[in-house]
């Protein structure tokens, strides 16, 4: 039935997890900082402590889950679709943890800090378990560039639909002003998200699911468990070292670290910057909801429109070009100044779009790195989850560093007292805060994108879009 409609079943099954995860990931990353700072009134110290714990957990769980999924003999870990099938319900439940306070919080309540820590760690743990399996599927469904572009295409369509959750959430809850409506929408989104990911769990299949794990260790006759643990640890370190010494992997990780930083910067603070830098009489609440929705929907449209360029030019040139565009736009905005409100709204939205669109292509270079690693070390099956997990070990801390650094800077200029732009505040203090926000919005993209361009230029895998498959697709 699906094939008769011209839909590829493998690509559809893969994309359903993108749809489900996109629905909840975008809402979580966009609203959690504002929720805990403005509604739960978490103290800066508790916020930083939660982010530090999250940063450590965020970095460590990726390589651990990656090693577990690549080497485990337990089907729910070793088979990608089963990891998604069993992880999806817990993933959706973890999403809901943040939106329901454990009691009526007073400003600086220690329990709000604990709540944030648990919500971040639970959500990221399940996100990692499910999406690592999906990332591994991307590399293992096919090694042919055209087939991978098809997965990207289906995934972007799914992400386009999933990203609309931000738009509907903003409109229905008035950008979280109606918190009860926000909570109800979150529950509905979690249920729909779970159903989408379960579809992948039932219908997707990786080409290596039936093969023995790369690091499978035979059981000793005498059952010496300690020897097996030592051998397993030794194998893990050896495989990880082989990944880390790949020059292209090193360059990609450095560039990706800054990309994750930029994603967190815009996802966490665009709503705060917009409320302070653009007056409500210029952009009413509904217009801002549309703006936020566009920031999450348009990246997928951009990637879909650029499918031809991806096929002809390859991801290397397109990713490099986005860095130059980011630098150019930020310099123009800096030169124009903060009082061109419509241009400011366009600039913030365009940055969200370009950063997210470029990030959507990062599975392609990682898949090529997995292919070259498999060929170089003559592996029977690829270390897909380990490569994605090791990449995350070094890049995920940027998700915590961005809000910690930005909040620290803003609080030095009185954000904690001036966080509600509607309050009657000292005009000079408010002007100073807005000035700092404007310079952050302009200078952070200039500096970060320039560093990314320097890191990305030496990347050597540039022609995979012109090559045939490295092994025969099933």
TrEMBL record:
In the bilayer, the protein is annotated as:
Multi-pass membrane protein
The residues that cross the membrane are: 12-33, 82-102, 114-139, 151-173, 179-202, 251-274, 286-306, 318-336, 342-367, 388-410, 436-456
Q: Which GO terms describe its cellular component?
A: membrane
Q: Report the SUPFAM superfamilies cross-referenced here.
A: MFS general substrate transporter
> Subcellular localization, per the record?
Membrane
Broad class of the protein's primary localization:
membrane
Any idea which UniProt keywords this protein has? Membrane, Transmembrane, Transmembrane helix
The protein, known as: Major facilitator superfamily domain containing 13a-like
Organism, as annotated:
Oryzias latipes (Japanese rice fish)
């Amino acid at each position: 039935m699906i094939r008769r409609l011209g839909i590829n079943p493998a690509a559809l099954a893969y994309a359903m997890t993108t749809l489900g995860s996109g629905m909840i990931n975008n809402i979580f990353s966009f609203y959690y900082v504002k929720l805990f700072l403005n509604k739960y009134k978490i103290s800066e110290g508790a916020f930083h402590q939660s982010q530090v714990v999250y940063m450590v957990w965020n970095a460590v769980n990726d390589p651990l889950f990656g090693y577990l999924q690549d080497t485990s003999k337990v089907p729910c870990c070793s088979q990608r679709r089963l990891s998604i099938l069993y992880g999806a319900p817990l993933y959706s439940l973890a999403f809901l943890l943040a939106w329901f306070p454990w009691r009526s919080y007073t400003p600086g309540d220690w329990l709000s800090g604990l709540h944030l820590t648990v919500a971040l760690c639970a959500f990221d743990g399940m996100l990692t378990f499910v999406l690592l399996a999906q990332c591994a599927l991307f590399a293992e469904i096919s090694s042919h560039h055209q087939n991978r572009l098809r997965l990207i295409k289906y995934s972007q369509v799914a992400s386009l639909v999933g990203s609309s959750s931000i738009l509907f959430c903003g409109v229905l809850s008035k950008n979280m002003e109606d918190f009860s409506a926000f909570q109800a929408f979150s529950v509905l989104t979690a249920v729909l998200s779970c159903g989408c990911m379960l579809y992948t769990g039932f219908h997707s299949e990786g080409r290596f699911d039936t093969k023995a794990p790369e690091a499978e260790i035979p059981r000793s006759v005498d059952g010496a468990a300690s020897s097996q643990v030592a051998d397993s640890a030794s194998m893990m370190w050896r495989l990880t070292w082989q990944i880390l010494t790949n020059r292209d992997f090193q360059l990609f990780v450095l560039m990706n670290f800054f990309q994750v930083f930029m994603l967190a910067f815009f996802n966490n603070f665009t709503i705060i910057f917009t409320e302070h830098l653009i007056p409500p009489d210029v952009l009413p609440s509904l217009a801002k909801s549309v703006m936020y929705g566009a920031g999450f929907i348009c990246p997928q449209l951009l990637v879909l429109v650029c499918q031809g360029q991806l096929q002809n030019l390859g991801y290397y040139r397109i990713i490099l070009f986005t860095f130059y565009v980011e630098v150019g736009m930020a310099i123009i905005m800096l030169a124009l100044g903060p009082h061109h409100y419509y241009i400011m709204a366009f600039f913030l939205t365009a940055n969200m779009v370009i950063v997210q669109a470029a990030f959507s292509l990062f599975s392609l270079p990682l898949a090529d790195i997995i292919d070259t690693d498999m060929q170089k070390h003559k592996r029977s099956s690829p270390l897909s989850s380990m490569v994605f997990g090791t990449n995350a070990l070094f890049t995920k801390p940027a998700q915590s560093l961005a809000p910690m650094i930005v909040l620290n800077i803003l609080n030095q200029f009185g954000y904690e007292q001036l966080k509600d732009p509607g309050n009657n505040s000292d005009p000079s203090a408010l002007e100073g805060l807005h000035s700092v926000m404007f310079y952050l919005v302009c200078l952070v993209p200039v500096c970060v994108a320039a560093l990314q361009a320097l890191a990305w230029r030496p990347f050597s895998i540039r022609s995979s879009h012109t090559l045939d498959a490295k092994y025969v697709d099933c």
